[in-house]
Write a sequence for this structure.
């Protein structure tokens, strides 16, 4: 049974891996870039706008992803990365540069966030498997749980956990 859980985690990792993670990071960065740009009423972000954007990204990560708190980088670090990502050297970050800026700004943060997502895909099936007996004793649903094979029950609980996490993140941004 545990082999099935590991296999399921690997399959979800392949399906949702890097492309899925980048899609969600892109979604967050696009939202933040547009929000800051509209408030600043400019096309590109200056250093001040960029620092506000970084604070908003970290606020979103800390607010909507459970776990430890991530401190935003210092202003000095933001300036350093801004210089690296400012391809046209106009001292501003445009929309295309912003995604790369955020990825360079916090690679360890995004690694931990990605790791949490994958952990959910492994932990959820394990918890589902170990708590099936307890769920069989719940009035109303216990008989249904008893009739479901372990593999089906585990798969349903994992899908529910992923769906819950996905819907929670979609409502965040």
């Amino acid at each position: 049974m545990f082999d099935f859980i590991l296999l399921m985690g690997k399959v979800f990792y392949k399906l949702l891996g890097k492309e899925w993670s980048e899609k969600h990071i892109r979604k967050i960065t696009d939202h933040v870039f547009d929000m800051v740009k509209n408030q600043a009423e400019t096309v590109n972000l200056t250093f001040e706008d960029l620092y506000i954007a970084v604070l908003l990204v970290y606020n979103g990560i800390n607010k909507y992803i459970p776990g430890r708190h991530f401190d935003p980088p210092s202003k000095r670090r933001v300036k350093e990365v801004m210089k690296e990502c400012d391809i046209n050297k106009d001292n501003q970050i445009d929309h295309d540069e912003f995604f790369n800026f955020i990825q360079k700004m916090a690679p360890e943060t995004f690694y931990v966030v990605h790791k949490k997502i994958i952990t959910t895909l492994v932990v959820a099936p394990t918890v589902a498997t170990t708590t099936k007996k307890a769920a069989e004793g719940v009035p109303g649903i216990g008989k249904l749980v008893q009739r479901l094979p372990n593999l089906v029950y585990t798969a349903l609980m994992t899908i529910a956990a992923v769906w819950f996490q996905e819907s929670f993140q979609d409502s965040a941004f």
Summary: The helical segments are 2-16, 18-40, 47-64, 75-85, 95-105, 107-136, 142-147, 150-172. Residues 56 and 173 are 11 Å apart (CA to CA).
